[in-house]
Hints:
Elements (H helix, E strand, L loop, with lengths): L12 H9 L13 E3 L1 H5 L3 H14 L2 E5 L5 H15 L3 H5 L9 E3 L16 E5 L8 H4 L16 H27 L17 E7 L4 H5 L5 E4 L5 E6 L5 E4 L5 E3 L7 E5 L1 H6 L9 E3 L7 E8 L6 E2 L16 E2 H9 L9
Parallel strand pairs: 1-2
Antiparallel strand pairs: 2-10, 3-4, 4-5, 5-12, 6-11, 7-10, 7-12, 8-9, 8-11, 13-14
Helix pairs in contact: 3-7, 4-7
Amino acid sequence: MHGAHPANPLVLLKDIVMQNDFANAKSTNAKMIPVIDVSGAISGDGLDDVADAIYNAAINHGFFYISNHGIDPVLMEQAFAVSKAFFELPEVDKQAVAVDRNQRGWLAQGMSRLQGSKTHDLKEVFFWGPHTEADDVDVLACKPLCAVNQWPRDFPRLYEDLTPYYEAVCQMARHVMAAVAVSLDQPANFFDKAYAKPLARGQMVYYPASTPQDDAEDRFGVAPHTDFGVLTVLLQDSSGGLQVRAKSGDWIEAPPIPGTLVCNIGDLLARWSNKRFTSTVHRVINRTSHARYSIPIFFDPHTDTVIDPVDLGVSADNSLFEPVCTGEYIMGRNTKSFAQYKK
């Protein structure tokens, strides 16, 4: 195990156990995190079956893999390749697109610390969102998370190679949301208005290998957290390291399955569904000897979308949550987690 005790015969057994216990997780199987074939949602011929599968996964796990999603593997490989190339750029080049308060650009190591964690996350991130012009009405109105992207001028390949994958995910995710709507006894087009101009924010994430010092300081690639928005669609490389807290309380591995993407329910969809769906705590630790890369896309509705369980058929008396606006809620969580808001 990476981060094992020093080669010292006098090392105490309890110290060995303590180090081995950090970020321990059990192996998993399809009963714990199911794999859902979403081709029926994309074609429309099997929407009800996909909706049933998503409903069961969302209430029992909050996490599921999706297969037969229709995204060209070449686009996935291209996205990973350009991500690796970007993070290998000199720091001065990445600093030219340093992250802003609109959550666009490069976040250096040490700038992310999730609420409740003992230390900062061991990662670098590049944030982007939908292509938006400076004269966009939402940008001019300074609405939360509506902003112009920061693409590095001297590395145009990032925009060129990342955008096709991003657009393919967003197109596919609309079909997944149609299945989510049906699973909650709504028409398939229920979310269409909210997603006419989605936030759909993306991240490229680089995780260096964890060291024994990181283990000693309880440092994760990403500390335990729930996602803030509606639906996350994650592309992870072959390194492993994603861990999910099961309903039993045990931490379980969510290993990469070739050809699949990982989806999970965020806090806003848990609210919208009046807690029928589970927003599951998860974390990342890179136990390999090499870098780990992942690309999550947070497929969230327009910033002004009101999240209210009543709109999904819950009576006002039975609603567990007050209405909240999407952008304000996510921005509120961001300001507590990232250093650029604390300057």
